[in-house]
Amino acid sequence: MKPINAFTVDVEDYYHVSAFEKEISRSDWDRFESRVMRGTHRVLELLAKHDTLATFFVLGWIADRFPRLVQDIHAAGHELGSHSYWHRLVYDLSPDEFHNDLVASLTAIENASGSRPINYRAPSFSITKHSLWALKILAEQGIVCDSSIFPIRHDRYGIPDARTEIHSIDTPCGPLYEFPPSVARVAGVNLPVSGGGYFRLYPLAWTVRCLRQINSESRPFMFYVHPWELDPDQPRLSVGSQLSRLRHRVNLASTERKLDELLSTFRFGRVCDVLAAMPGADRNGRAKVHRESTALAGD
Ligand SMILES: [Zn+2]
User: Fold this and answer.
1) pLDDT: is 2 or 263 the higher one?
2) Fewest CB within 10 A of the end CB: N or C in the chain?
3) pLDDT digits (tens, 9 = 90+) for 254-280
4) What does the pLDDT average to over 200-225?
């Protein structure tokens, strides 16, 4: 039997991305043409075609404006998670601001769906060495699994020496699973291979080879995609740096075809399915994984 890998979707619109946040004020979000329904339904249709369930990290702002979309995701059997409320980078927030944003997002998603999320992904993977304090607040608010620490070097996020597989972190408010976006070890460097712009940039054969390598070591991988990545006709924004605009638009037209093939190649499920399938998972589906006592004070 092939291992189950996590298929995850960060439900946000094209104008929410962090690379554009300096030029697009949050108070202007309502002025943009919304495309999130279109992109999310494309993902839902693809998942249905492959009889696959996934975890959707929803922006609280989206849940408040499009509760029907959250209901559609939930009704199809998918798992809900939070992608924050305002898509603000965690390391730019104080612990109080982070707490308030998290609670607002959990409340918005619960109001829309009747279900309070137990999974979280920070905007732009912004739990870094400077914001590890956030893990305690996540555990305190009932989050069971976080997927925010990218074990790579990047200009906006990442902890290059972080653990690359699922592990449990002890926080003062209890344990929290960390399921990082997956990387392949290539020439001694952690190479991001599991979603977003990296998935669009690399040839599919290369991605498949790297992901197979992870599965061959009996490890599940964590894949992620955004609804706007399946929407090549989205409005072009003339904001952000040239590099940011390139990262945002590269190969948008082929994402859907590549995803279709990826879903045929690997076995996917929700985050809860991956945890329940891990060796040593208990009767409640909680995995017994490596526990790590991390200094969570951060700086
Ligand atoms: Zn995001």
Assistant:
1) 263
2) N
3) 999 999 999 999 999 999 999 998 876
4) 94
Distance 67 CA to ligand 1 centre (A): 18
Q: How far is the CA of 83 from the centre of ligand 1 (A)?
A: 7
pLDDT over 90 (residue 49): yes
Q: Assign 274 to helix, strand or coil.
A: helix
Task: Tell me how many helices (H) and strands (E) the chain has.
Answer: 10, 12
Is this structure's pTM higher than 0.90? yes
Q: Is 71 helix (H, G, I), strand (E, B) or coil?
A: helix
Separation of CA 276 and ligand 1 centre (Å): 26
Quote the CA–CA distance of 248 and 218 in Å, as a whole number. 32
* Token code pair at residue 262: 């990826």
C-alpha 214 to ligand 1 mean position (Å): 25
Domain locations in the chain as residue ranges: 5-292
List Cβ neighbours of 209 (8 Å cut-off, separation of 6 or more).
none
3-state percent helix, strand, coil for the chain, nearest multiple of 5: 40, 15, 45
Q: Which fold has domain 5-292?
A: TIM Barrel (3.20.20)
pLDDT digits (tens, 9 = 90+) for 21-33: 888 999 999 999 9
Burial 262-291 (b: 16+ CB within 10 A, else e): bbeebbbbbbbbbbbbbeeeeeeebbebee
Report the separation in Å between the CA atom of 106 and the middle of ligand 1, taken as the mean of its atom positions: 16
Cβ atoms 15, 237 nearer than 8 A: yes
